[in-house]
Design brief:
The structure is a single chain. This protein has helices at 2-35, 41-71, 76-105, 115-119, 122-184, 190-206, 215-233, 258-267, 304-307, 313-325, 359-365, and strands at 213-214, 237-244, 251-252, 276-285, 289-297, 330-336, 340-348. It has two domains: 2-120, no CATH class; 153-348, Histidine kinase-like ATPase, C-terminal domain (Heat Shock Protein 90). With 372 residues, the chain is α+β, with helices and mostly antiparallel strands. The strands form two sheets. It has a five-stranded mixed sheet with strand order 2-4-5-7-6, covered by helices on one side. A two-stranded antiparallel ribbon has the order 1-3. Helix 1 packs across helix 2 (41-71) and helix 5 runs antiparallel to helix 10. This is Histidine kinase. Residues 159-237 form the Signal transduction histidine kinase internal region domain.
């Protein structure tokens, strides 16, 4: 699967290069035809074809040799000096091509000047410098723009992985503490917690390493977590969980809703000795609009944890992940009332702002020669 994806990416890259150079060839032919009116279009096309290898040499040396060798290591002086030396070399190669190949082809041989005089003629040197640099630096600009975009994507993906990784130990420690408390009392519910915990851990380890997971599967894990907490609190907790709408063929980032539910249990229910309640509503409406609401009772006596309930890492992570993934395609509203905490999340699942597929290829990109 990965090999097929890599091969497709390589084929697409080759195709992009071919398309770019074909467009460049016709662009050069048109500009040469405008400048040299004595030549027909076919002749200027062939002249441009003679000069294309010089453009190849110029661009690919910069893109695949100079930039990867010096830019990544921040050797800017060496990069600038190497580029200048290459530009001078290409300039004279361009003139040599004009003198020895293009001149005889179009029957334009200057017998009044020596080769050195033709080669160093200021007018022709300036003209050759402009023509040799225009196309190549346009292509290099595209390359740098693509490199900047890929670095930005990689940075965002790294941040997403970091945010997601913070969820795992936080949840795991809480659940293990619950399990430990039950084993001390030789509770028969310990086995149910072990089974539920193993299912969640299997999900975290094997299925959460992807960009998206099925919404139905993520909700299934959320239900497992709620079941574990329900076992822990027993009759102390009045829990309502409702799910409506068609969940088929919908995908979400893994564990996106779990921190909100975990906060409800940790900072609401755990601080109340009785009459604790939590309500969780998950609904999907057309077109692919996900609405998630979690509300929980609030302790009568406020403490420091309650005051900073919605400033915890879990909520910050959720909001930051949403900012990166959905930008303006979501709403997260927090309500901190006298008797309840509530969080309402609405997402348009069709409007994802960042595509982090191919992360492995993106990392490898910076270990190899530059590509555009």
């Amino acid at each position: 699967m990965k090999l097929d994806l890599k091969k497709r990416n390589q084929n697409q890259r080759v195709l992009n290069h071919l398309i770019f150079w074909v467009i460049t060839l016709f662009f050069l032919a048109v500009t040469n035809n405008i400048q040299v009116t004595s030549l027909n279009y076919q002749s200027t096309l062939i002249v441009s074809l003679f000069l294309l290898p010089v453009h190849f040499l110029y661009f690919y040396t910069i893109a695949y040799c100079i930039v990867p060798k010096y830019l990544e290591k921040k050797h800017y002086t060496k990069m600038i000096l190497s580029t200048i030396a290459l530009a001078v070399l290409v300039l004279f190669l361009y003139r040599l091509t004009e003198i020895f190949i293009i001149g005889p082809y179009i029957s334009l041989i200057n017998v009044d000047q020596t080769i050195v005089q033709q080669l160093t003629n200021p007018y022709h040197l300036i003209n050759a410098f402009e023509k040799s640099n225009l196309i190549v630096w346009f292509a290099v600009s595209i390359k740098f723009l693509k490199m900047w975009h890929e670095r930005k994507q990689l940075t965002l993906q790294t941040e997403l992985n970091f945010l997601k990784a913070q969820i795992h130990p936080h949840f795991l420690f809480n659940t293990l503490n619950n399990l430990y408390a039950l084993t001390l009392t030789n509770s028969s519910k310990s086995s149910s917690i072990v089974i539920g915990l193993s299912e969640i851990l299997r999900y975290m380890l094997n299925e959460c390493n992807t960009e998206n997971v099925k919404l139905a599967r993520d909700i299934e894990i959320l239900k497992n977590y709620v079941m574990l907490e329900e076992i822990r609190y027993g009759d102390r907790l009045d829990l309502n969980l409702s799910i409506t709408g068609n969940l088929d063929n919908l995908y979400v980032p893994p564990l996106l809703m779990l921190p909100l539910v975990e906060n409800a249990f940790k900072y609401g229910t755990s601080e109340m000795l009785k009459n604790a309640w939590i309500t969780i509503n998950i609904s999907v409406t057309a077109p692919n609009q996900l609405k998630f609401k979690v509300a929980n009772s609030k302790p009568l006596q406020k403490n420091q944890n309650s005051e900073i309930h919605f400033k915890k890492i879990g909520l910050k992570n959720v909001r930051r992940r949403l900012d990166i993934l959905y930008k303006d395609a979501y709403q997260l509203n927090i309500y901190n009332e006298d008797e309840l905490f509530a969080a309402i999340l609405e997402i348009n699942l069709n409007n994802k702002c960042i595509n982090t597929n191919g992360q492995g290829e993106l990392k490898n990109h910076h270990k190899q020669n530059g590509q555009y």
